[in-house]
Design brief:
With 164 residues, the chain is an alpha/beta fold. The protein has seven helices and five strands. It has a single domain, classed as Rossmann fold. The longest helix has 20 residues.
Length: 164
């Protein structure tokens, strides 16, 4: 089997981390959360309620891409999350590599706002959702799923649709 990495994308509150972990666990694959790749300056900025700029995101995207490359170079599979809001960000992450599959979790503003508001101790502030929705350039080449079903059902749908 050819190694592959699944990138779970979507705005804050879409369930990337929960679905990504559930998928990785069901496949026995390594999992990485994009939040863990942010440099401290990015976390501080978001914790203060300020959205990141493209310049802020560049080292973060490069670190995620390095994780993906390392998996594939070792012949390993993996699941990683990333908001991947813009096509330019996805070009960095995917780099035209057909071994990288993109899954987009989407929902209504109301669903997303409710999920973000329910979070405890997360640096992403509810007021920042609008900036993410404004920046989102929905991908044409992703498996797109509504975030409403439970994580296990979404993971099963991803496995089924991507033939995993």
């Amino acid at each position: 089997m050819i190694p592959q990495v699944i990138v779970i994308m979507g705005v804050a509150g879409s369930g990337k981390t929960t679905v990504g972990r559930t998928l990785a666990d069901s496949l026995g694959w390594p999992f990485a959360d994009a939040d863990d790749f942010h440099p401290p300056a990015n976390v501080a900025k978001m914790s203060a309620g300020r959205p990141l700029t493209d310049d802020d995101r560049a080292p973060w995207l490069a670190a995620i891409r390095a994780w993906i490359e390392a998996r594939l170079a070792r012949g390993e599979n993996g699941v990683v999350t990333c908001s991947a809001l813009k096509a330019a960000y996805r070009r960095v992450l995917l780099a035209g590599d057909t071994r990288i599959r993109l899954v987009h979790l989407q929902g209504t503003r109301e669903q997303l706002q409710a999920r973000i508001a329910a979070r405890q101790d997360h640096f992403m502030k509810p007021a920042m959702l609008d900036s993410q929705l404004a920046a989102l350039e929905p991908p044409a080449d992703a498996l797109t799923l509504n975030l409403a079903p439970p994580p296990a059902a979404l993971a099963a749908a991803i496995r089924r649709e991507l033939h995993l």
